[in-house]
Amino acid sequence: MKKIVLALAVSFLVVSMQAQEKIMGFTEANAARQLNWEKQFDASIKASNQDEWMKFLSSHPHHVGSPQDKANAEYMANLFRSWGYQTEIVSYYPLFPTPKTRKLEIVGNKNYKPKLQEPPVAGDKTTEQTAEQLPGYNAYSADGDVSAELVFVNRGVPADYEELARMGVDVKGKIVIAKYGGSWRGIKPKVAAEHGAIGCIIYSDPADDGYVQGDTYPEGAFKPKDGVQRGSVMDMPVYPGDPLTPDVGATKDAKRLDRKDAMTIMKIPVLPISYADAQPLLELLKGQLVPPSWRGGLPITYHVGPSVEKVHLKLEFNWDQKQLYNVIAKLPGSELPDEWIIRGNHHDGWVNGAADPLSGMVAEMEEARAISELVKKGYKPKRTIVFCAWDGEEPALLGSTEWVEDHQQELKQKAVIYINSDGNGRGFIGASGSHTLEPFFNEIANDVMDPQTNVTIKERHYARMMVRADAATRMKMLGNKNIRLGALGAGSDYSSFLQHLGIASMDIGFGGENQGGEYHSAYDSYDLFVKFKDPGFHYGEALTKTAGRITMRMANADVLPFNFNSFYKTVNDYVNEVQALLDNSRSQTEVENKMINEKLFVIANDPAKTYVPPSVKGLVPFLNFSNLENAMVQLKNASAEFQKLYGKATQLSTDKVNQLNDILYKAERSLINPEGLPRRSWYKHEIYAPGYYTGYGVKTLPGIREAIEQRNWTEAQGNIEIVAQRLEAYTGQVNAAIALLK
Fold first, then answer.
1. pLDDT-derived band at 615, boundaries 50, 70, 90
2. Which residues contact 590 (CB under 8 A, 6 or more apart)?
3. What does the pLDDT look like over 500-520, one tens digit per residue?
4. Alpha-carbon gap, residue 26 to 675, rounded angstroms
5. Other beta carbons less than 10 A from residue 17's beta carbon
6. Cis (ω within 30 of 0) for the bond into 306?
7. Contact indicator for 371, 327 with CB cutoff of 8 Å
8. Beta strand pairing status for 688-690 and 698-700?
9. Inter-helix orientation angle 713-741/626-646, to 10°
């Protein structure tokens, strides 16, 4: 019996080892070689390198245009050169405003003097570099000198203004004060201006990232009372990058718009402040109590306002062009040098920027160094690997957008994939991206170990999802460990690759156990990071191993590991969602109109009451989804057929494999609409885009979804047809791949 058990165990081990030798896109022999290289790659990774590099890169503030910004680029470029990469620093010259005047006061109250600065923290020397720091401000705010009553608008998103309207509160001619969170910060002044506000103040409430959440720095990682979140308020859902050179690189001689004609510069003055500076302003507010969900963590009663006293806000900026320093390092491919695997992270920060962005940047650098060590041992990637350290991400994705716009024709031909990271810390893998890459990424997540639990990062992700799920969802998830890639919206350097050019992209990083309040403040320092975010850089190593595998497998795959089935299934979910959104709009309209009519009937039949003219919403019309549904059926059938044949792809001749790979990595381009999305033609991808009123948050099938949300039925129908056409073109690519395989 023991012999039988032992034989079964050995048999199972052999089968398991054989299964592990099979990876997407590789012949069996090449898979074995690839996995051996990956073991050597893992063995060469050193956390001490990431520690050393972060110390230097975060030693001084390194915002756009600062001396340390340039010094950091040169430091990294020299390292890439020493590792054998063909390296250059590529410069662009975008508009980057910095503050000249920042004044905030209660009119007639000489006692209120907001600090508008972040005091140093004992024991953290970089927080003492106040002369080098940019103060708390919002880049691309308008200049302005305004005085008005103050109104509290919660998060400042459209739903909050609907609530204010129900309360009878109008912000026209007022200054609004909003809490950070709930949307990207640039949405808050954008929506405020649309409602007639003349100024906007944004503050960090302690309920979100201050003492309500945990001990504040230096005792803990959360925001101290004088901490300020800097950040851009450019209207990036319209287009990112230099506001004066949309769709072209901001070279020295580029043709530029006049600043008054730039669509993305905010129309009203905007200033971020700390919760210590916000409290006296919030205490001014009178009027109704805020809804319970609007309350924050300050020891006050939150009122909506308006205030009796007026608030004075004056802002002036230096509207200068600044030089950017993108570091571009290439390792030419041995067989397919004109197919590029692009890996990027930004290097600029608002202040010292240890967590954001250097935790991701040093992981990428260690990835490049470890690959260079393999090259010395004979490793030869088939495709060209391009490592990028972007400048100017924080203000408006400047460095990556200008480089992509400047090289867009070459990138359309050569870019296979763009792999992005940003901040990184202790916790769980997070991954978003093009859904053709989901099975490929899941294979990699099976091969990287979590440094804290010693199970795979996939297992740890699954455990977290199970713990967080309700009982019903947990039963559905039982045994299904597949990591679903999130859809990409905006907020980091993948945007121009995916949403402007249609280059398949991924964004990855670890987190979830690295919470804090240092984001975009002077307290995002090396000392805080190594104490609270990722002590020992163990998750920096995990990011290096994860991104390194993505880069190396894409660079060396015999057949590129794209899966059309996973794309079909995800897009089918999106189609179902927008159809449900339409049905919900119809049901909601019927309920609301019934309530309005009942109220009007009562008023009309009561002589003591004044009759109010009807204000019912128009009926939700029928929208014809037939062409889109037909396109989805065609995609389903073609995707299923392709996946059945995919396993035979490595048996094709070299010429046909090259033709197939060309189809595979360019298929995403079919989803690009040359005309772009409504009111923002820079965004051309018909499946993924940042929401017009969410900023970072993604809107899938954005042309259809946002038209339904805005009740623009003609536009919704038009976009249904556009998406159907793009999916038909995409299916044409799948069918071309099938023809090669047959």
1. very low
2. none
3. 999 999 999 999 999 999 999
4. 38
5. 9
6. yes
7. no
8. antiparallel
9. 20
Tokens of 531: 């104490």
Mean pLDDT of the chain: 93
Using alpha carbons only, give the angle 309, 312, 314 rounded to the nearest 5 degrees.
175
- For the chain, the C-alpha Rg in angstroms (whole number) is 27
Domain match, 735 and 625 both: yes
Residues 76-135: tens digit of each pLDDT: 999 999 999 999 999 999 999 999 999 999 998 878 889 999 999 999 999 999 999 999
**522: alpha, beta or left, given left = phi > 0 and alpha = psi -120 to 50?**
alpha
In a domain, residue 69? The reply is yes
Contact assessment for residue 294 and residue 349, using Cβ atoms and an 8 Å cutoff: no
Residue 34 lies in a domain: no
Mean pLDDT of 33-49: 98
Percent of the chain with pLDDT over 70: 93
Helix (H) or strand (E) holding 19: helix 2-21
pLDDT score, position 600 = 46
**Quick one: average pLDDT of 184-213?**
97
Contact partners, residue 530, CB within 8 Å, separation at least 6: 51
Domain co-membership, 359 together with 455: yes
Sign of the torsion formed by the C-alpha atoms of 486, 490, 495 and 499: positive
CATH (domain of 289): 3.50.30.30
Longest dimension (CA), the chain: 97
DSSP state for residue 494 in the 8-state scheme: T
Question: Residue 375 burial (CB < 10 Å; 0-12/13-18/19+)?
Answer: middle
Q: What are the φ and ψ backbone dihedral angles of 529, each rounded to 5 degrees?
A: -65, -50
Q: Is the four-CA dihedral 441, 442, 447, 451 of positive or negative sign?
A: positive
Give me the CATH number covering residue 451: 3.40.630.10
SS3 call for 189: helix
Integer angstrom CA distances of residue 188 from 191, 463, 609, 667: 6, 36, 38, 37
Structural domain span for residue 56: 47-92+324-556
What token pair was written down for 412? 């359309």
In a shared domain, residues 419 and 505 = yes
> Quick one: pLDDT at residue 111?
81
Could you give the CA distance from residue 427 to residue 414 in angstroms, rounded to a whole number? Answer: 35
Amino acid (1-letter code) at residue 90:
V
